[in-house]
Amino acid sequence: MAADLGELLVPYMPTIRVPRTGDRVFKSECAFSFDSPESEGGLYVCMNTFLGFGREHVERHYRKTGQSVYMHLKRHVKEKTTGAAGGAIPRRRNGKVFLDLELNRDFNGEDFEYEDEAKLVIFPDHFEIPLPNIEELPALVTIACDAVLNAPSAYKKQEPESWEEEIQVSRHARSLRQLDNGVRIPPSGWKCQKCEMRENLWLNLKDGAVLCGKWFFDGSGGNGHALEHYKETNFPLAVKLDTITPDGADVYSFEEEEAVLDPHISEHLSHFGIDMLQMQKRTENGHHTENTSRLRVSEWEVIQESGMKLKLVYGSGYTGIKNLGNSCYLGTVMQVLFSIPDFQRMFVGNLQRIFDYSPLDPTQDFATQMAKLGHGLLSGQYSKPPMKSELIEQVMKEEHKQQQRGISPRMFKALVSRGHPEFSSNRQQDAQEFLLHVINLVERNSAGLENPSDSFRFLVEERIQCCQTRRVRYSQRVDYCIQLPAPIEAATNREELLAFEAKRKEAEENMGTPPEPVRARIPFTACLQAFTEPENVPDFWSSALQAKSAGVKTSRFASFPEYLIVQIKKFTFGVDWVPKKLDLTIDVPDFLDLSRLRATGLQANEEELPDLMPPIVLPEDTRAPEIDETAVMQLAEMGFPLEACRKAVYYTGNMGPEMAFNWIIAHMEEPDFAEPLTLPSLMDPGPSTSDSPTGAAPIGNSPPEESISILTSMGFPRAHSIHALKATNNNLERALDWIFTHPEEEETDALSDMADTEPNDNAFSSANSHSDNTLSPDRDGSGSRVKDGPGRYELFAFISHMGASTMSGHYVCHIKKEGRWVIYNDHKVCLSERPPKDLGYIYFYHRLSSS
């Protein structure tokens, strides 16, 4: 028999691999479905790729790859028989078969016993070889099988990238003595203390100075004031402000001239009022603790409809999503998205095509994992009501066990959060930020295809007026969500709030019992009114005055989306940088008419601001740009003119002689090839753009020719290079990444620059602006990208948050289906008795027909 098995496996031996370090073994979940070893058909693990497949999908993988040998895993789960000895160890036929396997059900192991079964299956004949079978199998096959059976979970091997391990602890970190100068850093509104820069800002950990970083060759970065400060003071350590998270921050040592680790970063930041420890507190059960003396019990009970006998619902569209530990923000967002027909049609309607054309590793394909998740939620396959016999048995035992298990989004979360510092963590996150992140991924992965996120896409008209000259400028931009302010001053119970605040302060002073909390009641009309009111534009440059001036901005809808997302701005940052939630209710309507907020454009009695650009602020060291002289000499030794070598090294950002060599080859025929290095794009503001029919483009809108040349010298088409630079604000590194993630496609080029008619004053920090620039592609939404229509809407879903901040608490969502409200609370799906519409955080409306 041993010889027979050996001969049988000989043709397949080259395809059987032993898992190496770094290989992930997917033995708990199918790549195309939520089948697991506990499913009726078990799970098939490819012995070459180590991907897992349910019985329905393993044939597809065999046909696509020709891989014939799979390990079939099956777990048999049984409830212990009545009268079994208490505390008995669950029986296992093969003790190590499913080592480190996550169970796909929530049960107490003491109440169940299970048997694990493994065997090799050879396709297409389905020949089965039971395991273990050490005596009869070839040694290589035995080793491979044992390695697969004992491999850890695919999701427990996602350690930090190797480059992180190379960063060393700074020798200044432990000896740093911070100045007691009273500096406190606010959670927003930073700018360089020596110039107007608001990006690439660094906080010196010694004295709290906030200064800009160095200037880069592509025009980004800063004016190098952080480095100047070090040269003046010898204070070596600085942290980049926009990288601070509960896990740490990017720290740079000017003295050591490299990125470093600071093991005391939390203590050093707290010296300036940035409380990282406060950000990290959480409870053992996956929900964060509250940092308030009294929990908002009523909020948790009302939103989750606790105390009511909610009826469980099953079937298509009523499948819950398991909480992986602070992943409820993901579950609620995806439940709402897959209740929208456009997402259903794109990913579930095209399921077979997506699966058939998926790459060899479907776990890393966005469309495949979206289709898998959508099918899991909508098919009803994972939301089946218990059998009558099970119900009768439960009644006889006087037990009422939870029957809904939901689906685990582990594979989906690993993919969509990859590389993201926040979503890849196990901390609670802001559901609105994750929603925009998913929309961004849909945008990037829908090139040339139907784009379901177009349903949310709309145009905002921004009108900026110079307060001195009264002249105006109109521009448009793309957005996906409006954020409504929550004006506490408009609360209808203002007197009650003032009385509560007085009692609270009195209790604090006298060390007494705090009063019962009072929740602000704000009319929805007040939120809309606050959204439409003019707001000041920081650092506004008036082209009429050719100087900075006071400016105000108002926003209106240039188009109305098919589906409107409304976020209530309930969260604000405390002085300790921890986001805190305003405790309030808003009478959000079921029906909403925004027609009066439609944009009107330039009026007859208005005069436009001239199309002039503000003067360019030059870095102070542009006359002496940083150039790697070693690379220059290497190129000069090849026989190229010295000045040409200097330009090549400079324009490729000191990225090495090889990159500079490519630049030289691409520019050798130019008449000024050997001329001395000059920076005309920076030193000369260039001709006026007032004659341009589209008005003045913002700084950075027209990519520098040097950056275009760098990309074209790498072999990328010129048009595609320009498109990449425009989409990334002329950041060369991001442009390269953009090119690799956006294969060249046919451009419609009937694209206007309407979203780019604004000077670079970064003026729309308004209620409805988002932080992710990639969510506003530079092509306009005038064609099929914007589904304009009437501004009348009906509420169909809302996401609610419980807790004191976005970094803690819990999310649930309510969705209106078949005329009734349904509550989705992780894996539990029930009919809602009292949907708490006044306590929601994100609201979703669909457009009503014009009839």
UniProtKB/TrEMBL annotation:
E.C. number: 3.4.19.12
SMART domains: UBA, ZnF_UBP
Compositionally biased tracts (Acidic residues): 747-759
Annotated GO biological process: autophagy; protein deubiquitination; proteolysis
UniProt-annotated stretches for the region Disordered: 676-709, 747-786
Uppermost EC category: hydrolase
Compositionally biased tracts (Polar residues): 760-776
InterPro entries for this protein: Papain-like_cys_pep_sf (IPR038765), Peptidase_C19_UCH (IPR001394), Ub_carboxyl-term_hydrolase (IPR050185), UBA (IPR015940), UBA-like_sf (IPR009060), Ubiquitinyl_hydrolase (IPR016652), UBP13_Znf-UBP_var (IPR041432), USP (IPR028889)
Entry keywords, A to Z: Autophagy, Hydrolase, Metal-binding, Protease, Repeat, Thiol protease, Ubl conjugation pathway, Zinc, Zinc-finger
Catalysed reactions listed for this entry: Thiol-dependent hydrolysis of ester, thioester, amide, peptide and isopeptide bonds formed by the C-terminal Gly of ubiquitin (a 76-residue protein attached to proteins as an intracellular targeting signal)
Compositional bias of kind Basic and acidic residues: 777-786
Name of this protein: Ubiquitin carboxyl-terminal hydrolase
Organism annotation: Oryzias melastigma (Marine medaka)
